[in-house]
Design a protein that fits this description.
alpha+beta; 60s Ribosomal Protein L30, Chain: A; 5-stranded mixed sheet; 3 helices; chemotaxis; protein-glutamine glutaminase activity; Cytotoxic_necrot_fac-like_cat; hydrolase
């Protein structure tokens, strides 16, 4: 049996992101809540979103792009956002995650004026008094507006979770709205992640998954 070709090297700081080759020969980078990932390779960035939001951002002229996956806009109470030089606990929150994603694309050679942005997620899958998904969508829109970045495409809100696959080299996005049977699993994941956010301080390198 022929050996699978080795995966292309990742940019520094993203070695912990799970990557594998699917039966079609595509390289998949799987993002979990709190992750963000930037690549210059021909890869598919893959995640499942409930109330969380993902921003897909790329520089189309240079083939540099990335995706994040965050639960809440920013820490509450006495928490403080602290973004570091690599993916860390702070990227669980949108305020740090968006900064990190954009900065790493620029660091890899991207130019701000050419950035193309698409946003996904923010479904109301958590049966709580506060619509976490709506807060996330409002936050990411306002953040991008303040940064002077235009959203070229979006699929947000509603009550369904989403399976999102982003192709940074072409900018294509494949979105599948998941059924109610998937909603329970995604909502449970969101609830567990939300509890972890409440109990865990922002500072430091703490893996929740």
């Amino acid at each position: 049996m022929a050996e699978k070709p080795a995966l292309a090297k990742v940019l520094p700081g993203f070695e912990t992101i799970r990557r594998y080759t699917n039966p079609q020969g595509q390289v998949i980078a799987k993002l979990l809540p709190g992750d963000f990932y930037v690549t210059t390779n021909d890869e598919v960035l893959d995640t499942v979103l409930g109330s969380c939001v993902s921003a897909c951002i790329r520089n189309p002229k240079l083939g540099i792009g990335g995706m994040n996956h965050f639960m809440l806009p920013r820490p509450s109470g006495n928490g403080h956002d602290t973004w570091e030089n690599k993916a860390g606990a702070a990227t669980r929150y949108g305020s740090a995650s968006m900064e990190q994603l954009i900065n790493r694309i620029l660091k890899a050679g991207g130019t701000r004026a050419d950035l193309e942005v698409k946003i996904f997620g923010g479904g109301r899958v958590l049966k709580t008094l506060t619509d976490v998904g709506d807060h996330n969508v409002t936050f990411v829109r306002e953040f991008l507006k303040q940064e002077g970045l235009r959203v070229t495409s979006e699929d947000v809100g509603d009550t369904c979770p989403r399976h999102v696959q982003y192709f940074p080299l072409t900018g294509r996005v494949r979105v599948r709205h998941l059924t109610s049977s998937h909603s329970r699993d995604v909502a449970s994941q969101d609830e567990q992640f939300l509890k972890g956010l409440e109990k865990t301080p922002v500072a430091g390198e703490i893996d929740l998954f």
